[in-house]
Amino acid sequence: TDHKYIIFHTYTAFLFLLHRSNGKNYQLVLALVFAIEEINRNPHILPNMSLGFDLYTIPDNESNVLESFFFWLLGLEKVIPNYTCRRESKSVAVLLGATRKTSSQTGLLLELYKFPQITFGPFDHALSDPGQFPSLYQMAPRDTSLALCMVSLLLHFHWTWVGLLISEDQKGIQILSDLKREMEQNGVCAAFVKVIPEDTEFSLHLIIESSANVIIIYSDTNFVEELLFAIGQYFMTWKVWVTNSRWQDVSKMKHLILDSSHGMLMFSHYHGEIPGFTELTSTVNPSKFPEDIYLARLWHFCFGSSYSKRDCQTLENCPQNASWEWVPEYVFDMSLREESYNIYNAVYAVAHTLHEMLLQLVDTPKMGNEEGLLFSPWQLHPILKKLKFENIAGEQVTLDEKMKLETEYVIHSFWNFPEGLSYIVKVGNFSPYAPHGQQLSLQEDLIEWSIGFTQTPRSVCTETCGPGFRKSPQEGKAACCFNCHPCPENEISNETDMDQCVKCPDHQYANTERNQCLQRSVTFLAYQDPLGMALACTAVCLSVLTSAVLGVFVRHQHTPIVKANNRALSYILLISLTFCFLCSLLFIGPPNTATCTLQPIAFGLVFTVAVSTVLAKTVTVILAFKVTAPGRRMRRLLVSGAPNFIIPSCSLIQLTLCGVWLGTSPPFVDSDTHSEHGHIIITCNKGSVTAFYCGLGYLGSLALGTFMVAFLARNLPDTFNEAKFLTFSMLVFCSVWLTFLPVHHSTKGKVMVAVEVFSILASSAGLLGCIFAPKCYVILLKPHSCSLHGFRDRTLCGSNKPS
């Protein structure tokens, strides 16, 4: 801050000179004076002793800094090295706030004498090297949380697309690394990153052409002031500037409120208030310090008072009731600045160190004359390194960097008014010690945005993806640049800018907007459904009809048409068909473990019995027509009832397959969430698909074999030969189940169950209709044709005479 060195003395009067006579530097003088006067009035610190100070100003040409400071150290204008006659009032510490270049030069020189040096300017990582600067202490805290603080502000306003302008120095490189890390962790992208060397002109075209509306500027040099001054010439009122300090000099020119810096957000370290200091700065005037030539000049500059050319101190024609409140902040700031606060703490640090040193030497004989030092400045280092005290603001002060706590930050908003007037308003703060998510506190109603914004500015590469959409990165671009794609089926996103959609649970489904999961309704092929009711009624009606046919056959059991076709097999076939129709009811209604287990057993067994019965009837017809001579083998097979063993043999094989199926992977109750939107369909899972198709394949093979046998016997002559009916019935049966296979594969849910039920009913009805419909027609409508005598004697068969 303006290249100055403040030198502490004991037993001397105070003198403080400045590089430039302006209000910004003069507050540092007041902070020094205020702290020393407090200490001198305090009987508990350095009793019976008064502190004093000397002042040395750095020349404008920093190339002569080392030479000029060397002359000051020796007290000579031109001296021989390692020799001085100035022995009175030696300094014990140096308080400086120059640039790193100046501090490094003077630090190396003072290090020869182990001279304690305390800086009150911004913290510099280069000066914290204990190997190179072991005698230098920094009052300012490290910016360990500044990057997190800035990124928290960006996240608060949803600014994810920002530009970075960083000065090319060690601090700038460090903060750039911290910013990149925090931005990457929190999904904020850099539209551009520009590291600008000192004393280098910067083209503003990068800022103007960038789509980022928020620009972060970091520097501890005059770079920010020069940059913002240049930006003001372009009248860029559509950008938001975020800086790391209170840069007030940008408002020196008489801009209007449309100035580009209006609404700028600035971060500074939080510090407590010093009681009484604001009263001092607001009431200081030349009459209170008549010997202060710089105050007289500042007063003349601000209020137009004239002063005597003879002594440059006697003011004339001063306006009455002149107050610093009339003066803009960039000229004279009455509030406590961070550098002033650091000076105040540095003065107390030296005072406490001197006090501790004097206590240690209370019994040590004095060295030299009465006004000489009792010790050398280098002896203060052990105490300074361990020093820790609480200042009047209640904050802990220490010079050991390892013991310093993380600092809190204050966020200010810059308001610019006509005629160069400006106002800095505190709009928030940031505490690294607060819980996550509560570290940043803002009062948005106090923030004045630039005139280019009618509402809170937005700075994004791509507008947010709303609920129901997900982000899809754009190839070759930053992560903040993306496309928005709708969520896939049964997936939702109920927040903005979601990277992935979330799949709904199985018992829920996504609504049309894909932003909410709704509860699925449980459904199955119920008796209350029109389809379920129709199938159930059909099954019952067909089973009743089959029972009626069975009754007809039982009643006319002595007729030739019933006896000629093996009435026992006809009874078995009708009974099995009745159960075929009834077993379809197991597929309707709420599935449970019992019904799921009975379905394959009932279906497999009853259909095997039915088909094997048809096969037995066919074999019986063939054997009957092959018997041409008594005693032949065919006759013995027919007489012995060999065809009747077909039914148990075939049924035993099917029963074995069912047993293996149930023993290895039995069916179970399952839920289908994909077949119908918004519904959970409860179905019976087949368990083992292989076993299911094995059973179905066996039944199909049996049916195909029966069809082939019946087809071979279709042309055998006889009045009551039913081979043609058996052939046609098996053709219908096979056609139904061959059609079932592709349809079963292409359907799911309730439709699949309905297809199964329909196939059972259709194939059973095919057997019933093709085999028994013609016989019932003859028995009931043409009873005279059902008798052998009808063909010979034209007599009716209704006599029911047993044969």
Write structural notes for this entry.
The structure is a single chain. With 803 residues, the protein is of the alpha/beta class. Helices cover 40% and strands 15% of the residues. The protein has 21 helices and 26 strands. Helix 17 (646-664) runs antiparallel to helix 18. It starts with a strand and ends in an 11-residue tail after the last helix. The model is unreliable at 1-19, 77-88, 248-257, 309-313, 367-373 and 791-803 (pLDDT under 50).
Please provide a brief summary of the model:
The chain has 21 helices and 26 strands. By secondary structure, it is α/β, with parallel strands linked by helices.
Write the layout of secondary structure elements.
Blueprint: E1 4-10, H1 23-41, E2 51-57, H2 65-74, E3 91-96, H3 100-111, E4 117-119, E5 136-138, H4 146-156, E6 161-167, H5 170-185, E7 189-196, H6 205-209, E8 214-218, H7 223-233, E9 240-243, E10 265-269, H8 277-283, H9 293-303, E11 306-307, E12 315-316, H10 338-360, H11 381-386, E13 388-390, E14 396-398, E15 409-416, E16 422-430, E17 440-442, E18 469-473, E19 482-486, E20 491-492, E21 502-503, E22 508-510, E23 517-519, E24 521-523, H12 530-555, H13 560-563, H14 567-583, H15 593-626, H16 633-640, H17 646-664, E25 668-672, E26 679-685, H18 689-712, H19 723-746, H20 749-781, H21 788-792
Parallel strand pairs: 3-4, 4-5, 6-7, 6-8, 8-9, 9-10, 24-26
Antiparallel strand pairs: 1-2, 1-3, 10-15, 11-12, 13-14, 15-16, 16-17, 18-19, 20-21, 22-23, 25-26
Helix pairs in contact: 1-10, 2-3, 4-5, 12-14, 12-20, 14-15, 14-20, 15-16, 15-17, 15-18, 17-18, 18-19, 19-20
